[in-house]
Amino acid sequence: MEEKNYEAIVEAILFTMGESVELEKIAAALELDKKETKKIIENLMKEYEKPSIGMKIIELDGAYQMCTKSEMYEYLIRIAKQPKKHVLTDVLLETLSIIAYKQPITKVEIEKIRGVSCDHAVNKLVEYNLVKELGRLDAPGRPLLFGTTEEFLRSFGVQSLDELPMLDQVQIEEFKQEAEEEMKVKLDI
Amino acid sequence: MEEKNYEAIVEAILFTMGESVELEKIAAALELDKKETKKIIENLMKEYEKPSIGMKIIELDGAYQMCTKSEMYEYLIRIAKQPKKHVLTDVLLETLSIIAYKQPITKVEIEKIRGVSCDHAVNKLVEYNLVKELGRLDAPGRPLLFGTTEEFLRSFGVQSLDELPMLDQVQIEEFKQEAEEEMKVKLDI
Amino acid sequence: MELTVKLQVFEGPLDLLLHLLEKNKVNIYDIPIVEITNQYMEYIAEMKRNDLNVMSEFLVMAATLIDIKSRMLLPKKESEEEEEEDPRAELVQQLLEYKMYKCMAYELRDRQMDAEQVFFKEPTIPPEVAEYEEPVDLAELVGDMNLAKLDQIFKSIMKKQVDKIDPVRSKFGKIEKEEVSLSDKMLYVEDFCKTHRNFSFRNLLEAQASKVEVIVTFLAILELMKVGKIFISQEHTFDDIKIESKMAA
């Protein structure tokens, strides 16, 4: 190989590792800087978008992982074992969404929002590896802080926490104004 | 996908399975006969010969497997050689201390003490060879018992397990009394 | 059994409250607190009282609703110096936040369904490469951690365990459920009305043995007033309330 086929190397790395591989590591293996490496990976990702290719490359918080395209699911399910799925109840999903948006967060804060004790839900989420401890809050009782894991990003097809679907300030404001309009109408009658 | 991208499907199958997959199985997943399937696989194999691709498809006794091209080994080794960033987090340290002082102990007991699921932490500690399985508890479900390893003793400069200063009943009583004293003081105010 | 079925519908008091608001087609910002409180209490009454942990969560919200309800019944301060805050404001804020996360939870569920269609691969590291897998460097991992520090960590965990045992509450005996039912109390007040046509609210309360009895007596008065069996009057805020029986003697 006279000229290095960087894309082929990245491909081989992601294929072999199976798991997510951090940008730094790939850059070190290629002996390139992070910026150049990122460009190569992005090219490869674009290449993989072709319908003639069965896999895709996903980004997870600065790491990359190879997986199959969802269109392949119906064929794969005939031959491969279904990846282990955790059925998330409404309680678990609500708790998870609070943790995702408010991390790092303590159990007490979660309980304040939901109005219900969350011990069981948080423990289950930790067990499912969707949530992890982030350390302890520097406050009386040193309560545990929780946040989401890389597995959370993977299971929900989110690249990074910044990419979480947002009810942004604008939407909230609109929501409020709408309600206020309605109120006025009522008061006018 | 209007026209089935058979090659993409084969690719996805070989990727997902990792190991060798028999022709029959691939044919069944594609809903094609073996002859047609074989042709598709052979096309794909030829495609993979391109130097811009990091993997190859090999045939083994009527079965097919996707693997990395051997030219890629040197890069993979670089990835493997990169020191992994291992850190003993708070979670790991807390779990380790509980195991050290309470061994042999089951995961359930650790969870009771910490109030959070400990699967991940215990697995990591086992991976780091600081903790090992000691057998199973003779109780319903026969849960695994965990204890510290010799490496743990060495790394923490302990001569033998007896040297672990035990938090005995006396100390626990003291803690309790301390807590009660504190409460009394508060109530007196 | 009934409780678990119901709980699948309502994941806690806020969930129930949102349901009631939707059912009544009212806006979160304009909660008709009296109606909602009544409906909420009806729901609580229907719940089988066999899981105190769950019940208590619902009861905390019931108390909040009743608190708001009573604050709204009180005449507003006449001074216009400071604008009085709507007693519902805090609840509205909480409901809005909860609603937002509920909405996000649905969004997440959709995403999960899409993401689930994807397969990952186990690592297949060729033996030539696997040889180079470096073992974990324990010395570096452990760093300056030592037994004394580990001991400290353990002690602080155990101390937390001990702290969890509330020295006051752990000495409490069993809490017996006090049987004070609203309907019983209403009968009691009606009886009282027969012998005392006009009486003071304070006097009536003085005859009550416990806090629960006082509260239920107050609720009984409200209920009897609503159905028109008694008439109440009060000259000034915080004055004693005069109760007059409207029932035939």
TrEMBL record, chains A, B:
GO terms, biological process: cell division; chromosome separation; DNA replication
Places the protein is found: Cytoplasm
Pfam family, one: SMC_ScpB
Family annotation (HAMAP family): ScpB
Keyword set includes Cell cycle: yes
Subunit text: Homodimer. Homodimerization may be required to stabilize the binding of ScpA to the Smc head domains. Component of a cohesin-like complex composed of ScpA, ScpB and the Smc homodimer, in which ScpA and ScpB bind to the head domain of Smc. The presence of the three proteins is required for the association of the complex with DNA.
Cellular component GO terms held in the UniProt record: cytoplasm
NCBIfam families for this protein: SMC-Scp complex subunit ScpB
UniProt record similarity statement: Belongs to the ScpB family.
Keyword Cytoplasm attached: yes
Keywords assigned: Cell cycle, Cell division, Chromosome partition, Cytoplasm
Listed InterPro entries: ScpB_csome_segregation, WH-like_DNA-bd_sf, WH_DNA-bd_sf
Main location group: cytoplasm
Protein's recorded name: Segregation and condensation protein B
Function of the protein: Participates in chromosomal partition during cell division. May act via the formation of a condensin-like complex containing Smc and ScpA that pull DNA away from mid-cell into both cell halves.
From TrEMBL, chain C:
Domain of life: Bacteria
Record-level GO cellular component terms: cytoplasm
Keyword Cytoplasm in annotation: yes
Pfam families reported for this sequence: SMC_ScpA (PF02616)
Keyword Transmembrane: no
Cross-referenced InterPro entries: ScpA, ScpA-like_C
Subcellular location: Cytoplasm
GO process annotations (BP): cell division; chromosome segregation; DNA replication
Keywords: Cell cycle, Cell division, Chromosome partition, Cytoplasm
Function: Participates in chromosomal partition during cell division. May act via the formation of a condensin-like complex containing Smc and ScpB that pull DNA away from mid-cell into both cell halves.
Family: Belongs to the ScpA family.
Known partners and oligomeric status: Component of a cohesin-like complex composed of ScpA, ScpB and the Smc homodimer, in which ScpA and ScpB bind to the head domain of Smc. The presence of the three proteins is required for the association of the complex with DNA.
Listed name of the protein: Segregation and condensation protein A
Organism listed in the record: Roseburia inulinivorans DSM 16841
Gene designation: scpA
